[in-house]
Structures are given as C-alpha cells and as structure tokens.
Amino acid sequence: MKILLIGDNGVDQYQYGIVTRISPEAPVPVINYTHTVTRPGMAANVKDNLERLGCMVEFVHGLKTCVKTRVIDSRTKQHLIRIDQDSPSRAVKIDYSDINCYDAVVVSDYNKGSVDYETVENLRRIYSGPIFVDTKKIDLARFEGCFVKINQLEFEAAKSYPTDLIVTLGRDGVQYKEQKFSTPQVEAFDVCGAGDTFLSALTYNYVLTKDIEAAIRFAARAASVTVQHIGVYSPTLEEIEQA
Fold it and tell me: For a disulfide at 52, which of 70, 220, 234, 235, Cβ 3.0-4.6 Å?
C-alpha cells in the first residue's frame, strides 16, 4: 500500500521525573528529572502509524519542525505541563506528475502552514483516488470530495462542512453523516496521538475494503489501543484486531 502523506512535521518530547514536593518559590511541583523520550509528532506520527500497518509512505512536509515537550510525573503518570515550540512553514509544493501511483493521499494539517486550501483543492481536481483530511482549518466545505476527519471541538469551531465528514467524539463514539458508531470503552491513560492513529487506520482499512463504515469501526478500535498508552503510540494490526 503506497500512501502520499502531506502535513506539518513535528517532534514529541516526554521529560520524565518524580515529583516529591511543592516548590517553596511558587505553588508548583518540583520534578526530579530522570530521562527524556523522543517520538514522531504531528504528521510524522501519522507516518509512523501508517508504517506500523505496513504502508509505504512518501511524506511531504514544510521545512520547519514543531516541537512539543511534555513534562510527566513517572509515579502518578500525571501530565504536568506542555511546552510548544511552533515553527510555521510555508505551504508545500506537490509534484503532480505521478500522483495517481498512490493508493491514497492523507493530509494531516495542524494549521502550521505546510498545507493550504489550494493544495487540497488541486489534489482533489487532479488525483483520482481517495483523499483523507484531518485539519484544524474552519472552512471545511472547501474540502468537498474528501473524507474529512475532525474532533468535536474542531466541529464546533468550523464555519462550513463537507459531505463526507467524520467527527470523533471520544468515549461517545464517532459521527458520520446520520450514523453514530460506538467505540471500545477502555481506560484512557493519554489521548495524545489518538486522532493520528484514527486517521491512519481509517485510510489503511478503506484502501483495503472500499467501505467507509468498516474503516470507521476499524479506526475506532485502533484509537482505543493508542489511548491506553502514555504518549503517542502506533498500534500493530494484531493489537487492533484484538481490540
């Protein structure tokens, strides 16, 4: 399965330590640092998820990389603070000469500049296969003809909507048109990266089945695996099938 991924590049850092006291200087915890874990973030996490499912991924992204640093208490697993170092990029340029060699196109748009509306509109006009868009933009009707996946907060912020809109609702399931899909009820340790997993699994399963409802159910199971881990996590096909 060959996928073209377009989006914002990112790095997720997790700084772990143990909190033993409150600072005498301010009412904040003091963490005794132990180690740092670095993982792909933003669209790079989508790439990692797709590759974990066996896809070959061509990743086109802006020149800038955004870094998100999370400080976590190892003992309680409590997420104490997140530090964002955003580096907006210019919109990427797409080579359309062999665009139809891909089984699907995935757009992971965190609104950091790598993707503009015109890029997706040109893709829809030129590319003959399925396009999956996860975006923080608000004029979603401009992505008509694509499968657009957003969360509930993004749905409430949007000013227009496309026909094929998929809204993830956390524990309340997934809404697609007039149909609501349930999600596995699991203990969620961390929702970070769950949307990236959902997008990747949705694309993978749709390319296999050409059935969007089956793909939504598969993606919901995949996301339920991810939220049971601290930090971003890319589940295997076996883990998803057992969920």
Answer: 234
Residues shown for the chain? 243
* pLDDT over threshold 90, residue 9: yes
What pLDDT does 188 receive? 64
120 CB contacts (<8 Å, ≥6 apart)?
A: 107, 131, 133, 142, 143, 146
What tokens were used for 32?
């005794």
**Mean per-residue pLDDT of the chain:** 94
Q: Torsions phi, psi of 103, nearest 5?
A: -75, -25
Structure tokens given for 234:
């890319």
Number of other CB atoms surrounding residue 66 within 10 Å: 24
The total of other beta-carbon atoms located within 10 Å of residue 151's CB is 18
- In terms of Cβ atoms closer than 10 Å to its own Cβ (0-12, 13-18, 19+), residue 32 is exposed
Alpha-carbon span 37 to 17, nearest angstrom? 12
Q: Are strands 174-176 and 165-168 parallel, antiparallel or unpaired?
A: antiparallel
